Structures are given as C-alpha cells and as structure tokens.
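Hi R.,

Here's the chain you asked about this morning:
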Amino acid sequence: MNPRERLRFGLARLHAQDWQEAECCFDRLHLKRPSGIDLSRVRLLLAAARHGQNKLMPAMQLLLPLLKDQRDSRWFEEALLHYGSLCFELGLAQHWLDSCDRLGVSFDLERRSGNSQLIAMRGAAKLLVGDYRGGWADSEARSAVGMSRSLAPSIPRWLDGQNNSKARLLLLADQGFGELLFSLRFVPLLRQQVGFLQLACPPGLGRFMEQTQLFDVVQTSDVLRPAAFDCCEYLTSLPVLLGIDSPDQVPPPVLKLAPESCADWTLALRSSRNDAPLVALNWQGGKAAESIYSGGIRERSFPAEALEQVRSLQRCDLLSVQVGEAAQEIQGTSLAPRLVPQQARFDATPADFFTTASALMRCDLLITNDTSVAHLGGCLGLPTWVVLRKHPSWHWGDGGERSPWYPLLRCFRQSIAFDWSSALGPLDQALAVWLSDWRRRRGIPESPDP
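And here is the predicted structure, written out as tokens:
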C-alpha cells in the first residue's frame, strides 16, 4: 500500500470510528514521513484516532507542535479546536484559555473566517470555568458557523434593554433539547418586558412547551408570518440579553403538567402496587452529538447493562424513558423483570417530551446520564440523579454532588475517567439509603436484598 492509499484507507477507518486501525495507518505515515504527504495533517488525524481511544494526553502531545509553529495556518485553527476538546475532557478549560492568550490567538471575526468556531469554543471554555456572562456572549458566535437556526431575516432582533410591554416577540429554538429546556428559566424574566410571546420549536417539544404555559403560542411548523411580530430572538440567547451572570439571579423553573392533560396510561403507572418506588431510567443521549470534536460531551452515555451494577434497582419498580435505538437495550439486562407493565405503552408511543414528562410526573426518582432528560427532570422538580463523566458539560459544575443551576438535582461523578463503575458504585450505595428512607416514611417493612 503506497502512502496515498494508506492515507485514504486511514481516513475511511477514521470515518467508520475504527480508531485502532486508523491509528495504525496514520502512525506508520507519521514515522516514515513519506514525501508528498502533509505531515501536519497526518498529526491531526493521528491525534483524532488516539482521542477516539481515550488516549487523551498522547493526542494532545501530537497537537502541540502545530500550535507552537503557527506558520502552517491551514491546520492551526483545527489543531487549536481539537486541543480545546481534549482540554475540556481533561478538566483543563482554563489551560486552553491561557494557551490562547500565550499564542496570541485572534478572536476577531473580521480577520479569519474560522474564528467564529474559536469564539464559540472560547464561550464553552468560559462557561466551564464559571464565567457565565462571558461564555454566553461568546456563544452568540454559533450563528456565524451554522450551529444555530437562522433568525427570520425580515423580523428585527429583540435588543438588550428593549422594554416594550406591547411588543410581539418570536422566540426560535435553535440548539439541542437540553439547552432549550435549560433556557426555560429565563422566560419569566422576559415576559415582564414583552406583551406577546410565541415559540417556534421542533415537533418533539411542541406539546410539552404548550403545557408549560410560558408562551402565548407554540408552533412546530417552519412557516413564519413576519408581519405578526415586532421582533425575534433565540431562546438560548436570553441570558445574554437579560444580563444574567449567576445562577442566583434566576431559579430553575418548576413546571407541572395538569393531570388531566396526561395520557391515561401514565395515570395507571402507580395504580397496581405501592410497596416499591417507581424509578425512571435513561442511559444514552444523542450519539451523533458525542464526537471527538463535540467540546467535551463525548462519552457521556453508557450501556444499559452498566445499570446492573446498581443492585438496589432490583428492589424498585422501573420505567425506562430511554428513546431511540438504545431503548431496547434494557430488555437484555437483569433489570428487565422489574419493568412495569406500562413499559410497552411507553415504547409504543411516538417519542416526544410531553410523553416523557407525563410519565416522569408519576415517578419517585429519575436516574439518567447527562442528556436532555436530566434537564427535563430538573425542570419538573422531580428528584433527579445524574450520572456524569469525570469532567462533564458546564451545567453540572466540575465537582460536588450539587449543580449550581439545579440545586435539587444530585450528581454522581466518575472518580476515574471513562470508568462508569466509579460513579455507579456510589449511586448504588446512595440508592440503598434512599430506599430505606422511602420505605420508612411509608411504614413499609424492609425487603431483603435480591
């Protein structure tokens, strides 16, 4: 295989996430340094292959020469972005910010077309270190790199300080479901400054958003009538426009669904027995978002079988609220016999947040990974335990059992990177204590361990 063929083969293996085979291809090119092959590009690709195998420090070492020697500007920004993702996974967001300062990185959108991505990553880094105002301001660059749904060009934007109690404002849902649910806490503050509020959001959120009663109208179609609005804005831009810089300024919303609005089958979730708590489970987020370039959310999901380590779940009634391809994983675990009869109804119902919220309202506890379901549990005021990677996304902070943004939510963090048992072991112990308390408060005798 000549060098060009090896490069093409390595790229194909990288695209297929066959990290080990891709590493072998790029490592050989890196060692032999054949003529006609861009070695800087090979370094980047080799770093990606090692990153995919959780070899974070070796991947960083490969990128350092590309950062120190900025003469090859073709790869500098890509190397800096990849270095940032690695730093986030290692809990080194401040190091990345300091490195940008030392390297004299320009964050001027007018100077380099790629800088909008760097600005967005700087925003993510600032959020991770607790600079919320600066982080959200930088995150506004997402619209320049196609990370955001386009605002309606014929409707003017709602500007900071534009207080008009008669204004008709259109809000656009432009990011992932978790960010949208997190941003609901800012809507009550916005309502004090506008007269009419309409939300345009994906269909999967529509029914739930209607039930929150935060909006006058919720639409799920892409057809907009510009003449009906005075201004428009992104839902996730609200903290910037409202001048939020601390969790203390805005409490998390506590949203409730009216029982009569919920599906009949969810009302039957607690009708059959009362001697065991009903615990909802979720273990995977959108896998497409968990790439090595995702800025630190890679490896946030775990397989359903990992929950078998939580032995106390065998003393609970269970409802899986997992949707998508991973939904059936739980059927192949030892937890399957503990699933309630209504599990089949949940699985057969088209996935949307209203259905999930309706079911969660009947549960005693939610155990989930870092995904939109965690934010949903927090919004509903449901006791929620989030199983987190060692250095998770910024919403959960980087240590301790509590999140500054969801004070009632409990965090179980990996003590060893990429080792889910280091988070699920303490969760099992905590669940045993929680179960004893749940039974004691209801006068139910303790059941023997399974």
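One quick note: The mean pLDDT is 90.

Cheers,
M.
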